[in-house]
Amino acid sequence: MYDRVVVQKNTFLAITPAKLDDYMPLACPVCDTLMCLDDAHTWEEFSCCSQCANAWAYLRKEEWKTGWRPSPDVIKDVCSLRPKLRVNIGAL
Predict the structure, then answer these.
(1) Position 63 confidence tier, pLDDT thresholds 50, 70, 90
(2) Is 56 inside any structural domain?
(3) Is residue 86 part of a domain?
(4) How many Cα atoms within 13 Å fall on the side-chain side of residue 18?
(5) How far apart are CA 63 and CA 42, in angstroms?
(6) Which residues form the domain of 71?
(7) Distances from the Cα of 56 to the Cα of 9, 61, 69, 73, angstroms
(8) Residue 3's pLDDT is what?
(9) Domain total for the chain?
(10) DSSP states of the chain as a string?
(11) What residues contact residue 55 under an 8 Å CB cut-off, 6+ apart?
């Protein structure tokens, strides 16, 4: 049997493998927003979501690979401009 853990991120609950070394995380480690399947490629290349990759990683590829990240204030400002995720679970 596989070991699983329940992880809460904001108002979402997810069941994930206990050993997460080989898995994409629920939230981007840079901007702390929820990751989606579209982020798989940039996760493998840059260890971040596609929005962070487009904003910073592609532009500073060599610096990014050596550990550079924008300041928390810059991340917060850029994330505030992103459209909000809408979840439609279905009509009630």
Answers:
(1) very high
(2) yes
(3) no
(4) 4
(5) 16
(6) 22-80
(7) 24, 8, 8, 14
(8) 74
(9) 1
(10) ---EEEEEETTEEEEEES--TTS--SB-TTT-PBP-GGGHHHHHHHSS-HHHIIIIITTTHHHHHTT----HHHHHHHHHTSPPP-------
(11) 70, 78
The whole-angstrom separation of Cα 44 and Cα 65 is 12
Amino acid identity, position 8: Q
- Give the C-alpha distances (Å, rounded to integers) separating 51 from 2, 6, 19, 67: 32, 26, 26, 18
Residue 16 within a domain:
no
Contact indicator for 3, 19 with CB cutoff of 8 Å: yes
Cα 83 from Cα 43, distance rounded (Å): 20
> Tens digits of per-residue pLDDT, 2-61?
577 787 777 877 777 666 566 788 899 999 988 888 899 999 999 999 999 999 999 999
In a domain, 7, yes or no: no
Could you tell me how many residues make up the chain? 92
